[in-house]
Amino acid sequence: MSTDTPRSRSTDEQTPLRLLLSRFARPHSRGFTFGLVTLVLARIPQRIPALLIGVSLDALFLATQPYRLPLVPQGWIPETPTGQLWFTVFILAGAVLVESGLDWVSRWSYYHATVHTLHDIRTATYDSVVALEMSYFDDTQSGEVMSILNNDVNNIDNLSEGVYSGTNFVSQVLIALAFMLVLNWQLAIVAALIPVLMGVLSHIYARQIKQRYEAVRESVGQVNARLEDTIDGIATVKANTRENHELDRVTEQSRRYKATRWGAIRIRVVFSAITWFVGRGSEHVLLLIGGYWILVGPPPLMSGSLTPGTLLTFFMYTHSFLIPVQQLAVNVIDRIQNANASAKRVAGVLTNSAIEDDGDTDTLSITDGSVSYEDVTFTYPTAEEPTLRSIDLSVDDGDLVGIVGSTGAGKSTVLKLLFRFYDPDSGMIRIDGTDIGTVSRRSVREHIGYVSQDPFLFDGTIRSNIAYATPGADQETVERAARIAGAHEFVTSLDDGYDTEVGERGVKLSGGQRQRLAIARALLSDPEILVLDEATSHVDNETELQIQQSLEAIAGDRTTFVIAHRLSTVRDADAILVLDDGQIAERGTHEDLLDRDGLYADLWRVQVGDIDAVSDRFLGDVPPEEVAR
Ligand SMILES: Nc1ncnc2c1ncn2[C@@H]1O[C@H](COP(=O)(O)OP(=O)(O)OP(=O)(O)O)[C@@H](O)[C@H]1O
What we know:
By secondary structure, the protein is α/β, with parallel strands linked by helices. It has helices spanning 16-25, 29-46, 48-61, 81-131, 134-139, 142-155, 157-183, 185-232, 234-239, 243-295, 308-350, 411-418, 441-445, 462-466, 475-484, 488-493, 511-524, 541-555, 590-596, 599-608, 616-621, 624-628, and strands at 371-378, 388-395, 400-405, 426-431, 434-435, 448-451, 529-533, 559-563, 575-580, 583-588.
């Protein structure tokens, strides 16, 4: 877990944006503030050229006014027109220089703070995602999760951009208006109507676009989920020649995305046109009022004089803030609403209450590794009926327990509860007498080695995969684990041995090879309890025999659970549990169970090919494809 961005859920009802600002932007507030203050300061020199040009027009070219500048002592201004021209150009150059310098430090500071904030949001969101309970991943497609972690986090950049541009545009307008007020306050009030009008329009726009952007972000997630699904299953798609079917499904999602996106763009285009028209029209009204004032005299409700130079300055100011005001009304609102929709999805993860180990600080300490289930009943969050009912079992430390039963009987689920991937509805699971529901999940998992049905290898070398849970392990220890798992021989036959790159998800290895590496990985950390879930399902008969023979070595003196479809794998187990429809139907050693002549005996007969001896009851219960397995 990252230390600089602690995983903490907000308890109060914050809006997504506020949550992100208070949690992630605040630590970088100095960079943001400095960036915004210098941005605003840069707008002052930006407004000087229009003023100077107006004054020069009146004083130098029309010669109707003396050369005078607000706040500049008259003694500083040269007396000759040529001197005044040089003075004008000198100040213009100085203004541009100061503006560029301030803009440079402003961007540097602001964007530096932005990339750091986004980095913190990204890592904290990832941290929160991996901390979520398994049920979140059961309900959410991985493409959707990726879309939040990637697209939505990146999209929050729009918020930073929006705030920066918004501050830029607002300060451009306000500072221009301040200059205008000094020059001619009456005309300045007319000019101020333009941003006010735009403000009203942008308020309407913001309300219209909000929901549309939320729909867009949602459909981006759905498109990603669809794409990821088909790319993950590309071999199945090709083998079943379902490329066209998948294309149709992707096209359908993409069509939905296109429709939501177009809905947002349409509104944006319409508002762009309206604001542009209103802005331009207002500018022309200002020109009309100013021109009338110069040619005829002050219009109604106005008094005093107006020079052509001042009107030119006004015209340049209003013209220069037309684009910012229009951008503010549409683009900035657009960016902020777009980012807001993403912030909502990111905040949904950050504030998700289904966090593992939330508040569980006690840790499990294991001395022996005995395990007991006491009347455990469990229902998957998305299921209606319990998957496990009244499971009772007691395993002494060091025992090897086989778990068998037909497909879907609940074998994997029994052991998922041991890892606290889920907690039981009722009943209790104890390890060495401690109720695992009272200690942190991490501490439980640290003591259990796990080889799943479909072991996952990470992109990297064989060595790094074996040492995944024990990164500091030396070569000798890695090799020892690989030998026990029956992997050393094939690894050393590869050109690069333990340095062989396995490819994404281990695609460059066979299923059996992946499984053996996963067993080596589980053994390396020398856990007190080991869970092998169908660890021999992908291996050939020869390898299975090897693993079966070495099962004793693999199990060592640790408590070991082996889920097996091939009953031969567990025939020497200290105890075999036979699961049927979420309940333990039978238990005992291989011989006990054969003597009992129940479900296990039938399963055994099927596996040794003695189909004629299988009981009618079993044939009635079990679907034909299961008999054939
Ligand atoms: N995440 C889940 N959400 C809802 N139901 C689930 C989930 N995982 C498994 N199930 C259901 O729970 C039941 C038991 O599944 P489980 O994987 O434990 O069976 P199993 O005995 O290990 O089967 P198999 O031998 O085929 O691996 C099945 O009906 C399955 O559909």
